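Friendly challenge for the regulars: who can give me the structure tokens for this chain first? No prize, just bragging rights.
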Amino acid sequence: MNPIKEKSKSLENNFLPLKKMYPKSYNKAKTSPYTKTRVILMNGTEFESQWFMHNFARHCDEPEILAALAVVRRQEQQQQKRISCLKPLNESILETTIAYEQLAIDLTAVLARHETDENNIKALNFALLEDFDHLYRYANLLKMDKNEDADMLVGKYTEIMPGRPTIAEHRYPADDIKPHMDAQKADLYSKLVASTITAAEQQTMNYYMNIAQWYKNDLGRKLYAEIAMIEEAHVSQYESLKDPTLSWLEQWVMHEYCECWLYYSAYEDESNENIKKIWHEHFKMEVSHLKTATKLLKKFENKTFESVCGDGEFPKLLKLGGNKDYIRKVLASTVNLTADNTDCKKCYDYKDVKKIPDGHRYFDYQKFMSGEPEKNASHLVIEKAIQRLGQDYRYQDSEHPVKELRNRKQDNVKIARTK
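First reply, four minutes later:
Bragging rights claimed.
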């Protein structure tokens, strides 16, 4: 499949009437967990597209480009509104949150499993263990506040148990920055990986930034606020992987190509026939958007579509699903890692927390942010669950791969953060 070769409507014929912007919502009790995660992913993809084009417009004074951005941006807004309304009215904040974290986990894992770029793989695996832990913390809040079992929401495709503890994830911000790829040399799949995971994590960050104040108790509000800070760190990490030397028009072409790839992947993978039709319709719209951006790239920079996307043939399509064995392997081998950019000769490194110097800024930042670990929301939610339930809430197929994280009656606040 090569989107640039697909037939499409003219740009001005891609608007949606208001009646099509409010589709039939999915049934939360019957819908596949991965349909729910695709809805979140494509919502986030459209949000990323929106804000990219707004920022492009704020740095552009060419009327023809500004006009095209305005038209495409409005159509992307309509797509985003349509997707967001697929979420049903009776799905709670926490139920949606569980889907957000399942997406973060299984999307990150499947992207890493098929990636060849070592820098991308390390970044994906590093954040994977943190999102994995977030699911565990929210699942315990869900069990306490709603008496719901999160394993039913994730369809038992994703295990629920501690990852790298959230309390250990508070790092000095500069340590989250990674070296960017060279877009002229990078594999097309690697460029799609960086674009996709940035959009997905940004959507999670935005959701938590805006939902905390709506939660109905203090512990929940504090937990969302704490985890939102980690999601901001993840966005910083992932966006730094992308090549910033590309022109605005080159970046626009890449954005549209990525949307084409994601919508076509979602269409091929979707089990809900109603939503499958939406994915296909949006794919066709994105083909028109891609052609528009490509024409402007040629006109104003004399660069071709191929200079950004190679021959344009889609690499392996994205297929969401379970990744239990892969996640267990990453957990067992990298749970103690932290990020370290302090050594200029070995910049952008990941190191075992036990092997960094006592005076490292990680420990200073930890002391400032966390204060008394036992009072942090991410720890308190587990302690309160243990008090109420007799042990923490988990769903795991076998014993935890990390010995220090097997105790279900005590939350570990030392692993991956102390020497």
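The radius of gyration is 22 Å. Residues 118-146 form the longest helix (29 residues). Your move, everyone else.
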